[in-house]
Amino acid sequence: MRRPASLRGKMVAVTLSMLAIVGAATLYTGFATAALARSLGLLFERNQLIEEIRSGLSLSAQALSGYLTSRSPDYLAAYEGAAELLAQRSAALNREVRADEALLLQRELAGLVDRYLLDAGAAASAKAEGRIAVYSDRFESTLRGAELANLIVERIERRNLAASIEAYTGLEPRIGAIVATNAALVLAALIMAFTVFVRYAWAITEPLSALAESARAIGRGDYDRELPPIEAAEEIATVASAFENMRRSVRAAFDELKSKAEIERRLMEEDLRLVEMDRRLKDAELLALQAQINPHFLFNTLAAGMQLAMAEGAERSGNFMEKLSGFIRYALKSPSRSVLVSDELECVERYVWLLRLRFGERYSFSVEADPEALSAETPALVLQPLVENAVTHGLHDLEEGGAVRVRVACAGSEVLLEVSDTGVGIARAELEALRAGGGEAARGEREGGIGLRNVMRRVALATGGLGRVEIESAPGEGTTVRVRLPAAGGWA
Amino acid sequence: MKRLAWILAAFFGLVFLGAALLNADLVRKGREALAAAGIAGSASSHRARLHLLVILPASDDTYFSRLLEGLSSAAPGVDAALQVERYLPSSPEEAERWFDIGLRSGADGIVMYAARDEDVQGRAARAEAAGVVFVAVGKEAPSGVLPCFIGSAPLFQGFGGGRLITGALAQRARIGIILPAGGGSALPEEDSLYKGVAAAAATYPGAKILGTIRAGPGSFSGEVAAATLLAAAPEINAIFCATSRDTLGAAQVVMDRGLEGRVMIVGADDTPELSRHLRSGVVAASLVRDSRRIGEEAARAFADMEEGLFPPGVREVDFDVKTGNSPE
Fold this sequence. Notes:
Chain A is of the alpha+beta class.
């Protein structure tokens, strides 16, 4: 994986790139201008040199003529000065033999000047020595030399002028294009440098902007906003990576806290539910205790009454007392206990005997039992409340013909306890409420009694949820309540 | 963004390249100007051992251009750098100034055109006194003892031309002669060209030279001379010319007067225009002097004398006959 460049390296690269671009353009145009200026400078210097040689020839010839005429030291000094200057200038001319006409002209001029100075010097010396014929002859040669040298000077100047005109003629159409192109070059260099700067500035600041946006999102509490992939300088990439790691860590911590809170909430709800169940259980036990007080008194009283009835020969009243006291004795025991189905049936039969005594032939009651089911276990006081509900709510409005049927049977792995009546039945809405566990709303428990809801709850609690209560009913078609219990028992 | 950057980079590259080319052209032109003035670029020019001053008349005669070609081609072989100076044919003092410059400026040698009547012997003596090698070139060797002269053979040229005329016209030949400008003696009959033509005409009894005229230095002197000849002797049916310029002038006169086929022209040297006249038949033949070879011989003679060899004296170079059927 390619390692991103460092921020410092990028900034240095950008600066160097801009400097290189602008510098290259500037240097190049500068170089071209300098080369042209140097060419023009050289041309000017060389023209100046040629002109100085011409001037030196003229001045030295005049001074020499003056000296030869007057023998004045001033003229001699002037001549010597001019001759020295001329020799210096002549030394700058080309003296090599080269296949170049201009250079050969210079060499020719240099040779002529040398010869001129030689003749002039000889003339001056001869003048000093008084040799008239010599200085006269040498002076004539000097003048001839000056004439010929001036001829070459003019030739060189004409040639330079022609070359300059030719060069300018060749350059003139190009100068406009060159100036425009150089200006375009500088402009292009600036644009290029600006582009490079913007490009790199964008590359550097874009990830920072993304980082800032993510920071603002976290500031708003949005820990789910992921930092987009960033290709940036090493430093920024490092900061971005650390920032993203921090965001993920914080989010993970929050998720963990949420999870813990949820678990605690559920535990608390479970505790509350258990507390509620415990409270209800205690209420039930309290109710049972309350019920025990009066039934004991009632049981003792009924036992005394039974003995009195037997003593007075009132057999039927004695039986009544006996059945009632047996029922009360069964009911006084803990409602959360587990009993045999046969015991539960015996209790129901006593209760039915009492109901027959009360209602006479108005209602009919029947009890059917599968012998195999009698030895099974069942929560106590399950059937009696159902029979009581059937008489109280199902058959209540019937003057006669009402029937209640109690049936106990084995159904596979279950024991079935069923109470059905031919009463008024239950409306659909009430039936739905009963099935949902709202028994009190439908068949309103009598105060101090044990209603359908109590039966349903005790069955569920006693069997750990394995047993259940089913209700089938329709208005005018009676009601059937089935209690299904695990046949294996052992759940109490 | 990236795409824009690439476009800008390409634009910058193109502008930079264009500017580079234009600036390079600018610098090159500047250097050319400096080189032409002998200021810059001297290091790139060939260094030679000898400085040879060539002094020629400013003439459009191809004889001189070929002569210069021969000198230029031979100069590198003898390690010499040429400096060519031209003078007006009508200004012999200008030629003398350049000769004097050659003697005083330290040139190693002088190659100078010399007409027949010029004092070549005196110049050779002055050059020897100044320690400068002197080589004279020309069409006809001046009189006197010459240390070094390289030229054509006018006597044979005249004889060859005369033979061409008499070969075609035999005893019917009526000949007019145009001698070259400059040089030459005052009497045409003493010119070697005339002598050659006369010798050829003498071989055919009845053939005659009806007129002889020396051309002037002007560009149209050939036309003037031909018209003068024909005016003086209308029966002339052949004209002998010694230079290409005079040949073209004579051809123009013949065409202007509708005398093609009736006046035979035998000319000299070779130019594109003259070749055209040869192909059309206006000019029957041209005696092409090998002036290029003269130039080459002159350069070699200069180098030999510079090395201390004995001067070769007079050396004449042959000529070729060119007709309309000759290969180009």
